[in-house]
Structure formats: structure tokens, C-alpha cells
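dumping this here so i dont lose it
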């Protein structure tokens, strides 16, 4: 373990709800917790993983939640790697879209210099090591990765990679990258690969090829042979959510492979599909829209809902909100509470009772991926971690119930 960095932790009271708030980082450079499909805090509540640019390059750090000290995990000195939602990255460096933590084992996975890396935080602390290289196209150009995921127990990593030909057109922002890549996939007939990698051996143990851009992948915590993934393109695509049943004992061959999770109606949009923490069902948020094929959706935010589905796509419940716009809807660790990040505030909505509650003001501009709020409930259900640039630069915060 590296020599720790002095704690930066401070506390304050939320101006609206008077809840206890923790600011974990105070770097003049960007800090953020992990993307919402992965927890940042371990099950025992002792460690939190963040991405920080404090070294001058994106790197991974673990915060000791008792002392507040920071420990550097990765050793990247080559900048930001070009990846999904980071079109301005280069050919080397660490992908900010890639880090994923298994909160049970402390296994951390990320992509750096077009290779998969892993480390372990907690009592079984293990330093960073390279697992394997990512594939290249026929011309030797490395494929472009998206949001990765690590299975419960930390044995497997799921990494989506896309044909580099889709990213020849230079774009500045996430929206431009999304539209340009979608066009390239359609016009050039490009493909994405989803790799399942054994972290011990570095071998690809399963692979799925899809004729569209795949950016999000999530293992079921209940069964790592089940993966949910997306066709990227925002409101452009008409079939967002997909499922992959990998080979497993007792699974009929007819059920193997990738398929739409459910037939998405043409007048609906869906986004941010993810398994809830136990892996028993899938949640996504969506709503009504009107649009022509291949154009950005005209989304009607007064008709917003949350779908709860099983892995066969059966609708277990559709829960309509009051139309409050939210960037992300993340199922809490209690299996009933959805945590959301509309402009200015973080609030929760109980799928069983319909009760809503404002937790705190996040104050983030959410103007770029680095300061998207991405609220995630801790496993003890007493905290919600999030990122905000409320003071001018992205840092890591937490709402506390105690």
C-alpha cells in the first residue's frame, strides 16, 4: 500500500434539509466517484474508490472512510484514454469510463493503455496488475472501450469494445460523439464486442458480437451468466435495452445469446438500465417521445416512469412520477428506494409506497461527465455518494442519514 495522502474530509449541513453532509475530497483538480452501475463504497463501509486528476493524470484512489486518508491505486502517467463519453481523450492513458468495483471482494477493474487492469482494496489489499490487452481491428488499431463491470466475487470482468472506425470524426462532447458513432455504425456496418474476461488467467472466456455500439454492460449479482447491455445512441435508437444469457448449467441452448430485453415501443424512450444490487431484477427509466427514425428524440418529461423487469423482460411494475426530470435512476441497496438526480437536488422515491423525499441539494452543473451526480446508496443504507462541481470543480460528496 502506498504512503497515504492526508485526509481532506469536511462536514456541513444541507441548506434545505439540514442533513449531515460529508465532502470527501477537496482537490483543485477533478475528483469523482465511480459510474452509477458500480458502487464506490465497499460492503463493510470501510473504503471508497474514486477517480482523481490530482497527479496531473486520471488515477484511481481508495479513501479510508474511518481516517479519511487517500491511497493511490493506479500509476497512470499517460493522460486520459479516448473512450465512451470522453471523446477528447488520447491514444494512451486511463479510461475514466472504465473503473468498476465489486463491493464484496474489493476487486477493482479498469482500462489503462488499452489493457485491462485490476487491484484489490480492503483487508486483502493487492497492488495493481495488468490482466490482458484489449483487441485491435484488422489494421492493428485498438478498439474503443465503454463502461466496464466486474462480477460479484471479483472473478470476471465484462468489457465492451467498439470498432475504432466509428470514431474517426472528431467530436468535442458526449452528444457529438454519440451521434457521429451511431451514424458510422449504421453506414459502415460496424460491430461491438462484449468480452467476459477471467481476471485470474486474463483469458477471454466468452464473447458476444453485436451490430451496434455497446457502451453499458452489467452483470447480475445473482448469476454472472446473465448480463444486461445497451444499444447506445440516446433518443436515436428504438431498441435500447438488451440481455445476454451466457452458457450455464441448466440453461437451454435456445436461450443463449443476445436478445432485446423486451420489444421497445416506437413512442417510448428508455435509458440507464441496470440490475438492482441483488441482481434479481432490472430497473430503467423512460418516458414518451415523438421522433423520426435516426433523429434525436423529442422527450416529453411530463410522462416519466421507472420500469421494473425480470431477466426475461416481463414487466413487474411501471411507476409513474410527477414528471420531474432526472438524469439517472439508481435502485438503492434496500431493493425498494430509487435514488435520482434531477437539477439541483437528490431525491428518493419508494417504489412500494410511492413516497418521495428530498435528501439534499447537490448543486452540480452536470455540464460534463466528470460532474454528473450519479447518486448511489451505500450498503448500510445510511449514505448516498455523489459527485458535484458546486464549488467550481468536481469533488466527491455524501449525504448521511445519521
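and the seq i came up w/
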Amino acid at each position: 500500500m502506498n504512503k497515504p495522502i492526508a485526509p481532506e474530509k469536511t462536514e456541513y449541513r444541507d441548506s434545505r434539509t439540514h442533513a449531515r453532509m460529508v465532502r470527501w475530497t477537496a482537490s483543485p483538480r477533478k475528483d469523482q466517484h465511480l459510474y452509477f452501475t458500480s458502487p464506490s463504497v465497499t460492503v463493510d463501509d470501510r473504503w471508497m474508490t474514486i477517480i482523481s486528476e490530482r497527479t496531473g493524470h486520471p488515477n484511481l484512489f481508495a479513501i479510508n472512510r474511518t481516517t479519511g486518508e487517500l491511497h493511490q491505486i493506479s500509476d497512470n502517467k499517460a493522460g486520459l484514454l479516448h473512450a465512451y463519453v470522453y471523446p477528447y481523450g488520447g491514444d494512451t492513458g486511463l479510461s475514466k469510463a472504465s473503473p468498476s468495483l465489486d463491493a464484496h471482494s474489493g476487486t477493482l477493474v479498469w482500462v489503462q493503455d488499452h489493457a485491462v487492469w485490476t487491484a484489490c482494496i480492503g483487508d486483502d489489499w493487492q497492488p495493481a496488475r495488468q490482466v490482458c490487452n484489449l483487441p485491435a481491428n484488422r489494421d492493428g488499431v485498438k478498439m474503443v472501450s465503454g463502461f466496464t463491470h466486474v462480477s460479484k466475487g471479483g472473478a470476471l470482468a465484462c468489457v465492451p469494445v467498439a470498432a475504432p472506425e466509428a470514431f474517426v470524426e472528431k467530436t468535442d462532447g458526449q452528444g457529438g460523439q454519440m451521434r457521429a458513432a451511431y451514424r458510422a455504425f449504421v453506414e459502415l456496418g460496424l460491430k461491438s464486442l462484449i468480452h467476459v474476461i477471467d481476471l485470474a488467467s486474463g483469458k477471454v472466456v466468452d464473447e458476444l458480437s453485436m451490430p451496434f455500439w455497446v457502451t453499458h454492460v452489467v452483470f447480475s449479482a445473482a448469476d454472472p451468466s446473465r448480463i444486461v447491455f445497451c444499444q447506445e445512441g440516446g433518443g436515436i435508437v428504438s431498441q435500447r435495452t438488451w440481455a445476454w444469457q451466457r452458457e450455464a448449467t441448466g440453461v437451454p441452448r435456445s436461450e443463449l445469446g443476445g436478445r432485446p430485453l423486451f420489444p421497445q415501443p416506437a413512442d417510448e424512450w428508455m435509458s440507464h438500465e441496470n440490475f438492482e444490487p441483488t441482481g434479481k431484477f432490472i430497473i430503467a427509466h423512460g418516458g414518451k417521445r415523438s421522433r423520426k427514425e435516426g433523429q434525436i428524440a423529442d422527450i416529453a418529461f411530463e410522462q416519466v416512469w421507472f420500469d421494473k423487469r425480470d431477466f426475461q423482460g416481463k414487466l413487474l411494475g411501471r411507476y409513474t412520477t410527477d414528471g420531474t426530470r432526472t438524469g439517472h435512476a439508481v435502485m438503492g441497496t434496500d431493493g425498494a428506494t430509487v435514488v435520482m438526480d434531477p437539477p439541483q437536488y437528490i431525491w428518493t422515491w419508494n417504489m412500494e409506497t410511492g413516497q418521495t423525499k428530498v435528501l439534499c441539494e447537490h448543486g452540480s452543473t452536470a455540464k460534463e461527465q466528470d460532474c454528473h451526480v450519479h447518486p448511489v446508496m451505500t450498503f448500510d443504507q445510511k449514505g448516498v455518494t455523489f459527485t458535484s462541481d458546486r464549488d467550481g470543480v468536481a469533488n466527491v460528496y455524501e449525504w448521511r442519514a445519521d
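The mean pLDDT is 92.
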